[in-house]
Fold these 2 entries.
Entry 1:
Amino acid sequence: MSRILPAGGVEFEFTVPVVVIGGGAAGMVAALAAHERGAGVLVLERDALPQGSTALSAGLIPAPGTRWQRAAGIEDSPQRFAADVIAKAKGEPDPAAVARVAQAVGPALEWLADRYGLPFSVVDNFSYPGHSARRMHGLPSRSGAELIDRLRGAVEAAGIDVLCEAHVTALYADGPLVRGVEITRPDGSLERVGCGALVLACNGYGGNRALVRHHVPELAEALYFGHPGNQGDALLWGEALGAATRHLSGHQGHGSVAHPAGILVTWATITEGGVQVNAEGRRFSNEAQGYSEQAAVVLRQPDGIAWTVFDERIAGIARQFEDFRQAEAMGAVLTADSPVELAGLMKIDPGILSATLAEVDRLKAAGGTDGFGRDFAGSALLAPPYRAVRVTGALFHTQGGLVVDDAARVLDARGAPLPNLYAAGGAACGVSGAKASGYLSGNGLLTAVALGRIAGTAAAGVMKEERSQ
Ligand SMILES: Cc1cc2nc3c(=O)[nH]c(=O)nc-3n(C[C@H](O)[C@H](O)[C@H](O)COP(=O)(O)OP(=O)(O)OC[C@H]3O[C@@H](n4cnc5c(N)ncnc54)[C@H](O)[C@@H]3O)c2cc1C
């Protein structure tokens, strides 16, 4: 469906200076930025209501040096954040690309707060793996649904047109110059809209099983937990137009999705001192490395299943997340006064689980590192009542994509920008490198918000330059 058609002779019903494909965080932020620069903007979204993976996320965005951090006494800087991103991905991402988003994201959040009333606050009561400062920012419910609802509200209040049930099925181009898009409506009818500049904000290819099998074979059969409409259209169009792509195997997995409830169980359950055991009641990994790489690790356990085990203190922290509250409401979070009772509820060997948890207690008390390399120093002992959730590993979204420059322009294989094509969010190559382990918490919305603003601003700028010539 993601075709490139010749533009010659095509009559567009109308032409809009900036067309944005995709109504997730990247698309909505790009639309706001382009509109502010005075451009006419049209957002095209295949669903009846714009939500995307953004709505499925926890809506947490890492940003350094913000006023919310300063108010909480948290020291941070774009350089420090960039160093964390690069360290997590073991030096794989382009330092310039990392610096670009690390510098842009803080001002972008403050802009969204000041101009559009998004009430961000910083998560200051727990740390995410790999972040050397507490820099995750979220809205009051800590949910992506609230993030996309508020962004959509801002777009609507600004008078920006959002066309829903508008599935872009082809681009019209003259060589690398995009002239317009073909929209397929639910009844199969086609519409053709011309564009001055095109922003690809239609995320990656997580929903396209064939592309996942090709690029991320270890998660080929994993549950896909992202938005099904993300079929890799940006990647396929970009490739057909001669765009450079990078790190296509990069992705965010997650090793703690409640199963079968299908609800994300926050990784705070681990970072605060919880552990994962398999169906035998034994630990099998250094869980603290990160939730992304843990997806494939959990899937290698019997039946692709693990149990995340923690306690009431940690549940109290996790409860700030809507997802966790839902998991509890659905009865997915077991509770028991002792490891033996917990094992009974989990239907696993009580002796093995008790021994596993006793060993974890011993390591914590001694401040030791286990055989998997997890350092338990400073970690509080688990105390009754204990909690456990049955989880599996899932693919959340892909991180590789189209290579962009400082203005979010899509680059060709020689590093030259395509004339009027921009990419943001999951459509663009992220900053996680080529492996799941390279994903630092928040890298997804980082490039959605930071690159979205850059892309929208630059796409509107192209139109201004053209008008003044
Ligand atoms: C469960 C879960 C939790 C997550 N938690 C976090 C988190 O806390 N922090 C974080 O940083 N990241 C998180 N992520 C990742 C984050 O959700 C994504 O990185 C981010 O939402 C990407 O934004 P986007 O705008 O690029 O894509 P999306 O929000 O997916 O939006 C893309 C939109 O494009 C539309 N579209 C696709 N193709 C077409 C087409 N051809 N025509 C028209 N429309 C089209 C789709 O319908 C969709 O609405 C999480 C992801 C998941 C799945």
Note: Residues 251-395 form a domain with the Flavocytochrome C3; Chain A, domain 1 fold (CATH 3.90.700.10).
Entry 2:
Amino acid sequence: MRLSGYFVPTLRDTPKEAQIVSHRYMLRAGLIQQASAGIYSWLPMGHRVLRKVEQIVREEQDAAGAHEILMPTIQAADLWQQSGRYHDYGAEMLRIKDRHGRDMLYGPTNEELVTDIFRSHVRSYRSLPLNLYHIQWKFRDEVRPRFGVMRGREFLMKDNYSFDLDHEGAIRSYNKMFIAYLKTYARMGLRAIPMAAETGPIGGDLSHEFIVLAETGESEVFCHRDWLTDDIRNRSIDMEGDLQPVVDSFLGRYAATDDKHDPSNCPVAPEDLVVTRGIEVGHIFYFGTKYSDPLGGRVAGPDGREVPVHMGSYGIGVSRLVGAIIEASHDDRGIIWPEPVAPFRVGLVNLAVGNEACTGVCDDLYAQLGAAGIEALIDDRDERPGAKLADMDLIGLPWQVIVGPRGLRSGVIEVKDRRTGATEEMTPEAATARLAA
Ligand SMILES: Nc1ncnc2c1ncn2[C@@H]1O[C@H](COP(=O)(O)OP(=O)(O)O)[C@@H](O)[C@H]1O
Ligand SMILES: [Mg+2]
């Protein structure tokens, strides 16, 4: 992509309304624009990141055997009256009337709708287990939307719903999601720690929140310091095998949010306890027959008798994750995107667009990176070198390739690792080979 013809409206000054670093950088790097309180437009670069996060979530759901569907954002109120939640959900739910005076709502979550799909088609235990997910915008009229996309009113969520014949099956489905979640976050360069949680308005009796550690998080959290060095990618896990021992091995290591943590009864020695704050990036629930009972989600069991199915629901805050990744990965100059979610892998900076040699080398490099399948953003704008380098640091692409007249006189360009700041001079050919490796 050529920056001269792209749309990246970066800001020089820090917007006053932004209180946390991810919100500041998302506005300054031109990733989002506020439309109204807690509602954002995603501009081209922000949208690329959002799509990459979404795609990782999708791949791990598919790998865990869930099937993607797409349910609407607008739902009729009757189903919610049947489950009893139309009344219970309160002011967070945006209620709408259509032109015929029918009560509608903008979905804050989809347990009712998915149970309706299920009950219309599934009759026998032989169709189970079943796990359906979608990635769709939600609306919750939060009292205090804040921190940009972290606590929005409209936000993108991956939510899925598992259906099983009995408790035992439901726990298998729950465990599968538990592991799929850990893999999902790890692929984005995040460490998310599962913590026992309250179930809130979703209901149920088994629930875990997945929390990314960050000083700016909304809740105080406590965990054993071994969590800080664990990486699930080092374990080989058979998703079709018995996952209970694997889940237990994670849950055996202490981690709790402040509503579950009891300082007078903490199993971790003070020197091993990490006390910090965290961002909730996912939440999973097992709630048995809470929705299948009132909504009639029933199947015939092996003995022919009809029983309500056991359900779980599982959410990942896709749009919130973009903010959480920045909270976890930045410095005082800007964002540092982990490679798997970076909008482009390489930023190619032409320090002197009027200089024929520089522009020739940049154009060649850009073509070669493209041929090697490497996404690159080339800064071909006629701007001061200092401003271009500052913008590139702010935007935070993992690799920078800097081409200037001085280096070119001895045939070299500069390759910079955004995370470490380490730079190395090399020929353009060596740079392409290095980045393609
Ligand atoms: N207002 C919001 N803005 C952005 N993301 C949100 C918001 N509310 C929830 N999420 C994300 O969606 C995930 C699932 O939400 P859920 O757990 O059902 O909501 P809650 O945390 O309100 O109980 C959360 O873990 C979080 O990552
Ligand atoms: Mg939650």
Note: The mean pLDDT is 95.
